[in-house]
Design brief:
It contains four helices and no strands. The protein is an all-alpha fold and about 150 residues long. The longest helix is centred in the last third of the chain and has 32 residues, at about 85-115. The termini are far apart. About 10% of the residues are buried. The model is unreliable at about 130-148 (pLDDT under 50).
Amino acid sequence: MMRKPGYCVLYARIITAALGRGGSPCFRLGMFLFLLNWPVGYGGLALCGLLALIWKSNFWAILGGCFYVLSWLMLGLGVLLAGAGARTFFQNICRRKRAAWQRLRTIRAMSESKGSGGVSPPSTQPTKQAVFHRSDKAGERLSENSGK
């Protein structure tokens, strides 16, 4: 079975689209720092935490914390270098990519449910739901068709 892409793939595609946009060298450097802050922070913290457990040394734990702080500095510098125009660019790209991602997930869920004989995904058509009125006693349900 083929592995499905996750959130990190979406994140990388958004940043790649921003880098492909062109722009000034400051914008590109800001996007590059913005892209690298997650792997440097969490990767450095995880790797140094593992080394601290293996060698039982506080040095590695402190170095892991330094990597984490460095990632926050990279994020701040990336935001400053990218500028205010990056905000609107990211909002537009994220909105489009998220909508495409949701459509892809719906299509996959539908194809998997047809192939496996499982429950189909919920329909996008409006369904009739039970209506609760304030005058009901102990939460009695009145349907829309009951006429009460």
